[in-house]
Each structure stands twice: as C-alpha cells, then as structure tokens.
Design goal:
about 80% helix
Length: about 60
C-alpha cells in the first residue's frame, strides 16, 4: 500500500502526477463528450433517413 505524507505528495504521484492526472482528465473529457457526439450523430442520421424515405416515396408516386 502507498502512503503519502501530504496532499501535495498525493498530487505529485511520485513524479508521475502529470501523466496520471492528465490521463484521468482526458478520460473524463472523452466520457463527457461521447454521449453528446452520439446524440448529435443519431439526430443527423434520423433526419437523413427521413429525407431519404420521403424522396423514395415521392419517386414511387410519380
């Protein structure tokens, strides 16, 4: 088990703090952005499919 003498030692992570906290930060950012990106992509795809369906139904009527 690892014990730190102070909060600053905990943040420093034995000299690897930049990499450790940077990794946590990037992971948190990706986890926050991913649902937003998926939602936008879903919305765009549904709109495109609706347009395609309307175009196909119009071409069959003519």
């Amino acid at each position: 088990m690892i014990y730190w003498n102070s909060f600053a030692d905990f943040i420093a992570m034995g000299g690897y703090g930049f990499y450790v906290w940077g990794s946590f930060g990037v992971t948190a950012l990706v986890m926050a952005i991913e649902p937003i990106a998926v939602g936008r992509s879903r919305k765009t795809t549904i709109a495109r499919l609706k347009r395609q369906l309307r175009a196909e139904s119009r071409s069959k009527e003519a």
